[in-house]
Design a protein that fits this description.
150 residues; mainly alpha
C-alpha cells in the first residue's frame, strides 16, 4: 500500500522533522528484520528484533511522558500496539521462528507509511516539536488492534 512512499526512505530523513525520522527508523528496523529473516541466521534475527524492541521502547517512553501531547485515544492505541510488539518480541526470543517476525515487519511498515503520508500532508513542523506531537501522530491511519491480541 505504501510501497512508493517507503522507497523514498532509503536515505536518512532531513533533520528537524520528527515524523519523518520516526517513519525512517520504523522502516529501517523493518528492513533489518526482513534481511535477517532472509539470511536465516538466528543471531541476526534476534539482533534485528532487539533493535526493533528498543525503538518501540523509545516510543513507549515518549507516549508515557507527562509532556506527551498525543490525544488519549491515540496514545492508548499506540501503547496497546507497543505492548503487543513487546510480547511478540519476547516470544520470538524464546522461540526464534523466522515466520513470527512477519507481523513485526508489517506493523512497522504500516505505521511508517502512515507517518510518511501524514508528513507529506503536513510538511510544516514546529522547530521545537517533540517526536510524538498531536498533528503528527493523528495523521497516521487508524490501527485496528482487534487482530493483534495475543
Amino acid at each position: 500500500m505504501y510501497k512508493n512512499q517507503l522507497q523514498s526512505y532509503d536515505r536518512m530523513p532531513v533533520e528537524g522533522n520528527p515524523t519523518q525520522s520516526e517513519a525512517w527508523a520504523l522502516l529501517q528496523a523493518a528492513l533489518k528484520m526482513r534481511d535477517a529473516v532472509s539470511s536465516g541466521e538466528e543471531a541476526e534475527m534476534k539482533a534485528a528484533v532487539r533493535l526493533n524492541l528498543r525503538l518501540w521502547t523509545i516510543f513507549q517512553a515518549d507516549l508515557l511522558s507527562p509532556q506527551c501531547q498525543v490525544p488519549a485515544e491515540i496514545r492508548q492505541n499506540m501503547l496497546t500496539l507497543a505492548n503487543f510488539i513487546d510480547k511478540r518480541s519476547i516470544d520470538f526470543m524464546s522461540e526464534p521462528i523466522a515466520k513470527n517476525i512477519d507481523v513485526l515487519i508489517n506493523i512497522n511498515r504500516e505505521i511508517a507509511g502512515g507517518l510518511h503520508e501524514g508528513a507529506r500532508n503536513n510538511p510544516v513542523q514546529e522547530e521545537n516539536s517533540g517526536p510524538q506531537e498531536d498533528a503528527e501522530v493523528s495523521s497516521a491511519p487508524p490501527v485496528d488492534l482487534s487482530d493483534l491480541e495475543a
